[in-house]
C-alpha cells in the first residue's frame, strides 16, 4: 500500500486523530483534504494530550511532511494559533514539515460572524455548528467569490476580490443587524497575516504527484464523519463538505485510483454533537454512563456529546456508500462495565422493518431501532494491545459487528494513548 485514507464512519469524534497518529509512524506524508478547524483530533503521546484542529496529526512526529489540501477551508488566524500552541509543546511547524495548497479557500472573520448570526436566528432549529465559519466559507467557494491563499501573493488585486465578497455579505450583515464591513479592514487583516502564512504555500498537487512517482507512503486524514457528509449525511444536520473518502482525491489533486486502502474509524458505540436525528440515542443513565466513561465532551467546543448504542445499520450504510475496506474500532474499553450491550440491527417505521436509514425527515422522525442484545465482558480491556488478551465476549462483539457490516475490523483501540492499539494487519 502506498496510500491510506482515514475517515470517520459516524458523526465525527470516532478517534481519527489517535489512529492517524499511530499510522503516521509509517507514513511519509500526512494530508488533510476537507473541513477546517471545526475538527478536533486528540492525540495522547507520552502522557501528553495534544488537540489538533487544522494541522494534519502527523505534524507531531519528526521528519514527516504534512499537507493542507485544497479541499480544506483555512482560517489563517486559527492556523497561526495552532502553530503557536504547538510551539509551546516544542513542536516546530515550518515550511519543512507543512505545506498548504495554493488554491485552498480562506475563512475570513465575516464567515464566522455569519455562521453565529444564522445559528442565533435559527433558535431551536439551529444546526448546532461549531461556529467556526465553515459553512459560509464553503458557500462562498461554491459561489465563486472566495479568497484563495494564492491571492495573498498579489495583495494589490485583493480589494477587487474583497468587494465582490462584501457586495454579498454586507446585504446579509445588514439583515442580521451586524455592522457593515469596509474592504480596507479586510485588506489590512490579510496584509497582517500574509507574511506568516505564505511561507507554507506550495503547489501541493504537484508535490503529491512527485510523492506518488517516488512510491512515498501517503496518509489522508479525514475530518468529521460520513454521517455529516453534505450529500449522504443526515441533511440538513451535516457539515458543509464531502467527508467521503472520494473527497481525498478531489480535496488534494490525486486521482481516485491512487487511493489504495480506505479505513473507516468507528466508535464501539455512537455519539453526536449538535442537532439532528440519532436513532440509538439514550436519554437515560446508560447514555450518561457512556458519556462519563467515554469522556464525551467536544474537543473543539467543549459541548457534551449525545451518546447511544452502536448503530450497525448506519455504519453498514456509510461503508456501502463510501467504499471503506476495513474498520478501526475505537473506545472498546468504554464498554467494559456494561453487563448488557445493544447493537442496532434494523429499524422499524410504522410497523414496517427497514434495513437502511431513509433521507425523508418525516420517516427519520419515526425510526425506532431494533436491537440485538449482547452479553458484556465485565473485564478491564483498557490498554490491551494483544488480541489474545481480549475477553471472549469482547471478541464476540467484534465478530458480530464484522458479520453485520460486511467488512473486517483490522485495528482495535483500547485507550486514548498512542501505544494502546491492536493491529491485525500491516496497514502500509
Ligand atoms: P476525532 O475527532 O475522530 O479525532 O476524535 P476526538 O479526538 O474528537 O475524540 C475521540 C476521544 O476519544 C479523544 O478524547 C481520544 O483521546 C479518545 N480516544 C480515542 N481512542 C480511544 C480509545 O480506544 N479508548 C478511549 N477510552 N478513548 C479513546
Ligand atoms: P472531528 O473531525 C463532530 C458537527 C457540528 C454540527 C455540524 C455542522 O473532530 O470528528 P460545522 O461547524 O461543520 O458547520 O457544524 O457538524 N461537526 C462535528 N461533529 N466532530 C467533528 O469533527 C465535527 N465537525 C463538525 O457539531 O453538528
Ligand atoms: Mg473530534
UniProtKB/TrEMBL annotation:
Instruction: Using the UniProt record, name the top-level EC class of this enzyme in a single word.
Output: ligase
Alphabetized, the UniProt keywords read: Cytoplasm, GTP-binding, Ligase, Magnesium, Metal-binding, Nucleotide-binding, Purine biosynthesis
Record-linked Gene3D superfamilies: Adenylosuccinate Synthetase, subunit A, domain 1, Adenylosuccinate Synthetase, subunit A, domain 2, Adenylosuccinate Synthetase, subunit A, domain 3
Task: Name one molecular function that GO assigns to this entry.
Answer: GTP binding
Indicate where this protein resides in the cell: Cytoplasm
Q: Which GO cellular component terms are attached?
A: cytoplasm
Q: Which residues form the active site?
A: 13 (proton acceptor), 41 (proton donor), 141
EC no. given is 6.3.4.4
User: Cofactor note from UniProt?
Assistant: Binds 1 Mg(2+) ion per subunit.
Source organism, top-level taxon: Bacteria
The answer to whether keyword Ligase applies is: yes
| This protein's pathway | Purine metabolism; AMP biosynthesis via de novo pathway; AMP from IMP: step 1/2
- Cofactors named for this entry: Mg(2+)
Q: Give the similarity note.
A: Belongs to the adenylosuccinate synthetase family.
Q: What is this protein called?
A: Adenylosuccinate synthetase
What organism is recorded for this protein? PS1 clade bacterium
Q: Which gene encodes it?
A: purA
